[in-house]
Structures are given as structure tokens and as C-alpha cells.
Design a protein that fits this description.
mainly alpha
Length: 173
């Protein structure tokens, strides 16, 4: 139990900086260049590594994880490249004072690409979950819940600079 709490605390200490960079990269995707996208990949890989450390994976699970990560990367890389191209086109349309219909159409293309990326990522995430034991799945669920909570807080902090992170919402622990 102490190990789990220790891992969760370490995860929470490492995750806010990783999540903040991901939020900035994803919200400012219009200005994202190729090196920044590789930075996002690196941080997501680091985030997954922390999560995997918390789960205490066996050797066979680590091999399975590595295969899944490699196929995930191979599947997502072309999609991210296409997303970069479409975002570049969108920026050019916005800078060139194109019609609102053309911009709206391009935004729809970008949104569809982002949904496809999320679906692909979810597919590999589900495949990874299937290789976990029951206890590891519950730990994984808890870690993901904590990561999402931290991500939401970071997003809220970036929207409202006067947000007091020590202030608790009614009903929270």
C-alpha cells in the first residue's frame, strides 16, 4: 500500500509539468512546429513510462507494452504528420483572409483528424489494458483518473490566471 501511495505521489509531482506542456502544445497547435510535435511525443512517452512503473509490470507485460507502443507510434506518426499539414493549411487560410466557409471546412477536417487520432490511441490503450491483471487495471484506472484531474486543473489555471489551486470546490475531499 505504501508503494502505491509513493508511486501516485511521484506521478502527481511529475505529471503537472508534463500535462502543462501537453496542454500548451495541443491548445496552441496552430503554432506547433515539427520539433514541438516530437517534444509532445517524448512527453507522452515519459508519461506512459511513469504510469507503467506504478503498475509493476512483469517481463512479459513489458514486452507486450513495448510492442503495443511501437505499433501505436507507427500508426499515429502518419496521422500526426497529416494533422500538421492540415493545421498549416488552416493557418494559411486564416492569415490569407479566406472565406468563413473555407475556414470552417478546414477546421472540420482538423477536428476529424483529431478524433481519428484519439480513436487510434484508445484502441491501443484498450489493447494494453487487456494485458493487465485485475489489480493492475484498477491501479491504471486510478492513475488515469488522477492524470485527467490534474489536466483539467491545469486547463482551468491557464484559462483563469487568478484561480487559487488551494481553494476546494464544495464536495471535494
Amino acid at each position: 500500500m505504501k508503494k502505491i501511495v509513493l508511486y501516485l505521489i511521484l506521478t502527481l509531482l511529475v505529471m503537472p509539468s508534463v500535462c502543462a506542456k501537453q496542454i500548451e502544445s495541443r491548445t496552441n497547435a496552430k503554432t506547433c512546429t515539427q520539433p514541438e510535435m516530437s517534444e509532445v511525443f517524448r512527453m507522452e512517452h515519459a508519461q506512459r513510462a511513469v504510469t507503467y512503473n506504478v503498475l509493476n509490470l512483469t517481463d512479459s507485460q513489458i514486452q507486450t507494452k513495448n510492442k503495443i507502443d511501437q505499433t501505436r507510434y507507427n500508426a499515429l506518426q502518419p496521422q500526426f504528420d497529416q494533422l500538421d499539414q492540415e493545421l498549416f493549411v488552416l493557418r494559411k487560410l486564416e492569415a490569407g483572409n479566406a472565406s468563413k466557409q473555407a475556414i470552417k471546412k478546414q477546421k472540420k477536417v482538423v477536428k476529424n483528424l483529431q478524433k481519428n487520432i484519439e480513436k487510434t490511441d484508445a484502441k491501443y490503450d484498450k489493447e494494453f489494458k487487456n494485458s493487465l491483471s485485475r489489480e493492475q487495471r484498477s491501479k491504471y484506472k486510478d492513475v488515469r483518473r488522477l492524470e485527467n484531474r490534474d489536466l483539467k486543473r491545469k486547463m482551468h489555471e491557464t484559462k483563469d490566471p487568478y484561480y487559487d489551486k488551494n481553494m476546494r470546490v464544495f464536495g471535494e475531499g
